[in-house]
Amino acid sequence: MIRKATLGDVNQIAVVIMRAWKGAYTGIIDPKYIKTMKKEKYISIFKDNISEEKEIIFVYDEKGDEKGVKGFISGKEQYGRYDCEIVGLYVDPENQGKGVGKRLFQKMEEEFIARGKRNLIVWTLENTANNSFYERMGGVKKEKKLLEYGGKLYSGVGFKFDLKPKK
Ligand SMILES: CC(C)(COP(=O)(O)OP(=O)(O)OC[C@H]1O[C@@H](n2cnc3c(N)ncnc32)[C@H](O)[C@@H]1OP(=O)(O)O)[C@@H](O)C(=O)NCCC(=O)NCCS
Question: Does the beta carbon of 124 sit less than 6 angstroms from any atom of ligand 1?
Answer without folding.
Answer: yes
